[in-house]
Specification:
44% of the residues lie in helices and 22% in strands. The chain has 153 residues and is of the alpha+beta class. Strand 1 (2-5) and strand 2 (8-11) form a beta hairpin. The two termini are 37 Å apart.
Length: 153
Amino acid sequence: MDYLVDGIINVTFVSNMEKIKVDVAWCGKNFGASLGYNVPGAVVLTAKTFEELQREVPETLRFHVEGMVEDGDDVPQWLIDGDYEFDYNLVDVATLLHAYEPYFTLSALSYASGINQHQLSHYANGIKQPRPQQRQRIVEGLHKIGRELLSVV
């Protein structure tokens, strides 16, 4: 839908791309991922880092689709054409903390979130699961660290 504000036409683009949900979990020493319900067949993979996993997902999916096409399987055209984008779902706080640990320390996150560092360590190692309010404090702490880094000139 287009609309006019102060004499300027604003155009809203709606993506027609299919979204593929990628569920990501921390599995002790690696990240594990599985692709969403709209991808036929089972596609799972692991990687040492979240960054590596994000690089591997598109390649793994292309390989999977090529194999399905070669086998004569029914594959949606949008999947063959690559008309999709990935939506990463970090399934728990341990996964969230490990995914972004290259960019912060638990000490810094403790300072930014007000949550005891020892408690954060329990969350990161899957020993304890935070309540929703604690999870929100962790996310807000990460955002606070990000804002501080963005303010550097």
